[in-house]
Amino acid sequence: MKRLDVINIVAAFSLVLPPLLGTLAAEQFAEGPDALEEATVHAFGDRDKTCLAWTDSCRSCQRAENGDPVCSNIGIACQPKPIVCTRRPEAAPKQEGAPKQEGAPK
Fold first, then answer.
1. d(CA 76, CA 96)
2. 40-67 pLDDT, tens per residue?
3. C-alpha distances in angstroms, 23 versus 12, 28, 31, 57, 88?
4. How does residue 37 score in pLDDT terms, banded at 50, 70 and 90?
5. SS3 54
6. pLDDT level of residue 90 (50, 70, 90 thresholds)
7. What is the mean pLDDT of the chain?
8. pTM of this structure
9. DSSP sequence for 81-105
């Protein structure tokens, strides 16, 4: 085989291979974006808007003042566990007034 033929074959593969790989990756992502989203600690805050802080036992995240998630770095050799919410907004306490006594000053 001549050197020019080898160069032409390599050039042809370089034109065909990237779109083919992109199509395969898109098909794989289309099958399971929910599974991928569930696996990321950053996306958990987007799925559960009422959660103020959450963790996967390796990283801890909380909502910043603007609502975006802020997460710590993962530790060395940490094995993430299922993500759980660790803090939710506190319910406003009910304002129960003391019973008024008759004749008491206002």
1. 50
2. 888 888 888 899 999 999 999 999 988 8
3. 18, 9, 13, 35, 41
4. very low
5. strand
6. confident
7. 74
8. 0.51
9. ---EEEE-PPPPPP-PPPPPPTT--
Q: Which residues does 85 contact at the CB level (< 8 Å), separation at least 6?
A: 44, 48, 51, 53, 54
Distance CA 106, CA 97 (A): 13
CA 88, distance to chain mean position in Å, is 17
Cα separation, 63 vs 71, in Å, equals: 9
Pairing relationship of beta strands 60-63 and 84-87 according to DSSP bridges: unpaired
Cα 83 from Cα 71, distance rounded (Å) = 13
Write out pLDDT tens, residues 9-31.
766 666 655 665 565 555 555 54
Which residues pair with residue 62 across a beta bridge?
53, 70
CB 87 within 8 A of CB 51: yes
Give the tokens for residue 75.
Answer: 């530790």
DSSP state of 34: H
